[in-house]
Amino acid sequence: MERLKIKLQVNGEPVELDVKPSETLLETLRDRLELTGAKDGCGLGACGSCTVLLNGLPTRSCIVLTAELDGADVTTIEGLADGTKLDPVQESFMDKGAVQCGFCTPGMILTARSLLNRNARPTREEIIRSMSSNLCRCTGYKKIIEAVEAAASSQAPKS
Ligand code: FES
Ligand code: FES
């Protein structure tokens, strides 16, 4: 089968790959780059567990073809911490007990990170709207929303 050469930036590192036209970004990340933080939940673009940041925006990697991403910038949960320093969203998910089995957590955290990058002080309604596309089977959503609110507070400039 024909393969296509593409170059990506993944978690700040350049990556060159030969990909099949049908290979999804989720397959590339999990099966070829061993970045297994993005989870394969529904495979249909419905649950959000496979969410990564594609050029800074939350994207369902199970329904994106890697062959179409030449030149793109991808951030997975593995690339969010700054060395050993966790991102404030990761910290607040732990502090608020917003993680149970953890299956949805990478997608939740990346969705929240993208929101806070675009809107440092979201209202509760804006947080709920942004996070509503990610499904969690365990925690309910109260602690997740509280964790995003706490992360927003912790990173907001003090006035
Ligand atoms: S696995 Fe991609 S949206 Fe569910
Ligand atoms: S913590 Fe288990 S699915 Fe969300």
Description:
It contains 5 helices and 5 strands, in the order ββαβββαααα. The protein has a 5-stranded mixed sheet, with helices on one face. Helix content is 33%, strand content 16%. The longest helix is centred in the last third of the chain and has 14 residues, at 105-118. The chain folds into 2 domains: 4-79, Beta-grasp domain (Ubiquitin-like (UB roll), Roll); 88-155, [2Fe-2S]-binding domain (DNA polymerase, domain 1), CATH 1.10.150. The protein has helices at 25-32, 88-95, 105-118, 124-131, 142-155, and strands at 4-10, 13-19, 51-54, 57-60, 73-75. With 159 residues, the chain is α+β, with helices and mostly antiparallel strands. The structure holds FE2/S2 (inorganic) cluster (2 copies). One FE2/S2 (inorganic) cluster binds next to loops.
Write the layout of secondary structure elements.
Elements: E1 4-10, E2 13-19, H1 25-32, E3 51-54, E4 57-60, E5 73-75, H2 88-95, H3 105-118, H4 124-131, H5 142-155
Parallel strand pairs: 1-5
Antiparallel strand pairs: 1-2, 3-4, 3-5
Helix pairs in contact: 2-5, 3-5
The chain binds FE2/S2 (inorganic) cluster (2 copies).
Task: Jot down its keywords.
single chain, about 160 residues, alpha+beta, Ubiquitin-like (UB roll), DNA polymerase, domain 1, 2 domains, five-stranded mixed beta sheet, 5 strands, about 15% strand, globular, binds FE2/S2 (inorganic) cluster
